[in-house]
Specification:
Chain B: One of its GO terms (cellular component) is plasma membrane. The complex is a heterodimer. By secondary structure, chain A is mostly helical. Chain A contains 14 helices and no strands. Chain B is 73% helix and 0% strand. The chains are: A mainly alpha, B mainly alpha.
């Protein structure tokens, strides 16, 4: 039966196989190769997606049968002050975290690109955090943010003669404190990608610009940045999606009251997690995931639109 | 890379370059400060944690002995390794096979299959975990290795990445192999695959790291502590240790050391792989 062995040609099925045209054989092989993956993507990606949409229209709570309740979950969400708080937090991570991390990583990559002395070693310093586990590093940063005498940051602040800061214990400082951790965790990857983008710019552009006597800033503004646009767009989208889905850091840095203090750091994914797996309101949680999906879709569309106009 | 080959002879070093280098170096040290303090605190005794010096006055390995003694970390380490290795092998095999088929075969429905797989990139894991959880609990997959790893056995990212590389493989090579009488599977495995090894290593790095550090789904699908992966295990361990920071840092260090060691050995490949995947992906 296996089409792989067509040297023998003894059985009827093999003779049939040999009579197939090259094109037909290609089609058979192609679908043979794709059979298991198509099954996988159907069962593990597409069906669950549809199911999530369906569940968002039900009141399923893991114990009782799911009943269709129309858009009630969405109405409940819009009236839920916690949802709006979480929505604001999520966009705070995204809208503040993304530009800051992109700016920092670009500046570092821009200068690192010109460094020859110990280039590899310095690059490694910036890249190392990318290889760490977010859950583990969240605890390291949590230690950093502790009040004196344990917290290193407060120790440093104290050395400079300033007052100790509450950081993770304050409703105002906790979110920025977690954001710093997330930015730190993502910098290494962004720097490496920017470096790759910078290297892909042909040297002739720079040579021509120098011949024309353009200054460094003009070169950056007129040549480097425009040619780097695809890389930048990719990183902005990648980093936005990362901040939109932030979870590991928040969950681990505020584990005594996840998303606290007073929900001031709670992002959408943490709300989804708690709605689904602490209060078992599966239908309501599914509706929240649909919102997350919609935001992601919008971001991706914006990316496609920007890259198309190029 | 072309630039370094044609790099001009070093000109006289300007003061600006020295300042830039120093800033970059200081910034790099700041970047690894969390790692340094993690290791430093893990080597301190309970009473010494309050001493914020980077180099411990009396470094000790007793925290490591204590954390490792009950065997839980070793178990979590083995779980994570097993899961990351299996998902990586699976992704390398299936993602490449799909990518190759989509890049090199002509058959009706090719575009549709590619677009369908590509479109799953837009579906966030968070949206799928509730149906996955439902599926896992009704099929008895919760608290099993299979339950933790089944969602990651194939990725659209891998298909997308590999397809771009398979497209650069010349058709003549494959045609020549066909004339020699090799079957299509052998052609893929023996002729095409060796031509895309850089892309394979890039995909391997991303898949391994992604599964090694994965937190959200393993947290949901496991309640049995023996089946925890390293990140989930560390998280529960840290909560349980409460304020014993030297113990928590030792746990954090133990879950970080493996990937750092891999990096030290394969730095060149990893950086190149990330660049490759980032630019092409």
């Amino acid at each position: 039966m296996t089409p792989s062995d067509h040297s023998g040609g003894g059985t009827g099925s093999l003779r049939l196989w040999d009579r197939l045209s090259v094109t037909t054989k290609q089609i058979v092989w192609a679908w043979l190769f794709l059979a298991v993956p198509i099954l996988f993507f159907g069962v593990v990606r597409f069906y669950p997606t549809l199911q999530a949409f369906w569940l968002s229209l039900t009141d399923w709570d893991l114990l009782n049968e799911a009943n269709f309740i129309g858009l009630d979950n969405y109405r409940k969400m819009l009236a839920d002050p916690l949802f709006w708080q979480v929505f604001r937090n999520t966009f705070a991570y995204l809208l503040i975290g993304t530009p800051i991390s992109i700016a920092i990583s670009f500046v570092i990559a821009y200068y690192l690109d010109r460094v020859r002395f110990l280039h590899g070693a310095i690059r490694a310093l910036y890249f190392l955090p990318f290889l760490t586990t977010a859950a583990a590093m969240a605890w390291v940063w949590r230690l950093f943010y502790q009040p004196p005498p344990i917290g290193i940051i407060n120790g440093f602040i104290g050395m400079l003669g300033f007052e100790a800061q509450p950081f993770l214990r304050s409703t105002e400082q906790a979110l920025p404190a977690i954001m710093v951790t997330a930015i730190w965790a993502g910098l290494g990857f962004q720097i490496i990608i920017f470096l790759a983008g910078l290297r892909a710019i042909p040297t002739t552009y720079y040579e021509a610009a120098r011949v024309d006597g353009l200054g460094e800033f003009t070169i950056l503004h007129r040549i480097t940045l425009p040619l780097l646009k695809p890389t930048t767009v990719f990183l902005v989208v990648f980093s936005s999606i990362g901040f939109l889905r932030i979870f590991d850091q928040v969950y681990n840095m505020t584990s005594n009251d996840p998303g606290g203090p007073l929900n001031s750091t709670k992002p959408l994914v943490l709300m989804i997690y708690q709605t689904a797996f602490s209060s078992y309101q599966m239908g309501y949680a599914a509706a929240q995931t649909v919102v997350l999906f919609t935001i992601l879709l919008v971001i991706t569309m914006i990316q496609l639109w920007i890259l198309r106009s190029r | 890379m072309s630039r370094s080959a044609t790099a001009p002879v070093p000109r006289s070093i300007r003061p600006g370059a020295i300042i830039a280098w120093t800033c970059l170096f200081v910034g790099g040290v700041i970047m690894i400060t969390p790692l340094l303090f993690m290791f430093s605190t893990s080597l301190k005794s309970a009473g010494e944690v309050f001493d914020l010096r980077l180099v411990p006055a009396n470094p000790t390995l007793q925290n490591y002995v204590r954390v490792l003694s009950d065997g839980r970390f070793l178990g979590w380490f083995l779980n994570s390794t097993l899961i990351a290795v299996i998902t990586t092998v699976s992704c390398l095999f299936f993602d490449s096979l799909v990518a190759y088929t989509l890049a090199k075969f002509r058959f009706p429905g090719r575009k549709l299959v590619f677009l369908a797989i590509l479109s799953t990139l837009m579906i966030p894991t968070e949206m799928l975990v509730i149906p996955w959880y439902l599926m896992s609990s009704s099929l008895g997959w919760t608290d099993t290795y299979w339950g933790i790893m089944f969602p990651g056995l194939m990725t659209a990212f891998g298909v997308f990445l590999m397809r771009q590389f398979f497209e650069t493989v010349p058709d003549d090579f494959l045609e020549a192999a066909r004339i020699d009488g090799l079957n299509e599977f052998t052609i893929w495995w023996r002729i095409a695959m060796p031509l895309v090894t850089p892309a394979l290593s890039a995909l391997a790095i991303f898949t391994f790291l992604g599964n090694w550090t994965a937190f959200f789904w393993p947290l949901i699908v496991t309640t049995d502590r023996d089946l925890y992966t390293l990140p989930v295990g560390l998280s529960s361990f840290a909560v349980e240790q409460s304020i014993q920071w030297e113990m928590i840092m030792t746990g954090a260090a133990l879950s970080t050391i493996p990937t750092l060691l891999i990096f030290l050995f394969f730095q060149r490949y990893i950086v190149r792989g990330v660049m490759l995947a980032g630019v092409k992906g």
